[in-house]
């Protein structure tokens, strides 16, 4: 199994990183409930429509950011041919 390189983040930016549980709350379903944590892990590992959620490993756990969630959402929408807010 090929191991991928992890992103490096300066310690001053660690406070902007979200735990998987926090990230799930930032990406609610249409009914307002948070996505399941397994979705987040699947998006980071396997991706959706050829796009993977950017994550870093901190202390044995995954972390992501609001910015990376937005970028992932926009990339998936574009890959699937949906209109995005930037258009």
Average predicted confidence as pLDDT? 83
Q: Would you count the extended β strands for me? A: 2
Largest sheet: 2 strands, antiparallel
* Uncertain parts: 1-5
Query: Which H/E pattern describes the elements?
Result: HHEEH
Q: Please tell me the total number of domains.
A: 1
Give the structural class.
Answer: mainly alpha
Q: In percent terms, what proportion of residues is strand?
A: 5-15%
Q: What is the count of DSSP helices, taking H or I runs of 4+ residues?
A: 3
Structural notes for this entry:
Strand 1 (56-58) and strand 2 form a beta hairpin. The protein is globular. It has a two-stranded antiparallel ribbon. It has three helices and two strands. It has one domain (17-80). Residues 1-5 have low confidence and may be disordered. The chain is mainly alpha-helical.
How is the secondary structure organized here?
Blueprint: H1 20-26, H2 37-45, E1 56-58, E2 61-63, H3 66-80
Antiparallel strand pairs: 1-2
Summarize this, please?
The protein has 87 residues and is mostly helical. It is built from 3 helices and 2 strands.
List its salient traits.
87 residues, mainly alpha, 36% helix, globular
């Amino acid at each position: 199994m090929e191991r991928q390189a992890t992103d490096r983040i300066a310690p001053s930016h660690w406070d902007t990183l979200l735990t998987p549980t926090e990230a799930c709350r930032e990406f609610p379903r249409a009914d307002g409930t948070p996505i399941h944590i397994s979705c987040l892990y699947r998006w980071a590992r396997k991706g959706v429509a050829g796009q993977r959620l950017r994550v870093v490993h901190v202390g044995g756990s995954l972390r992501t950011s609001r910015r990376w969630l937005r970028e992932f959402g926009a990339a998936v929408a574009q890959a699937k041919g949906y209109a995005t807010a930037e258009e």
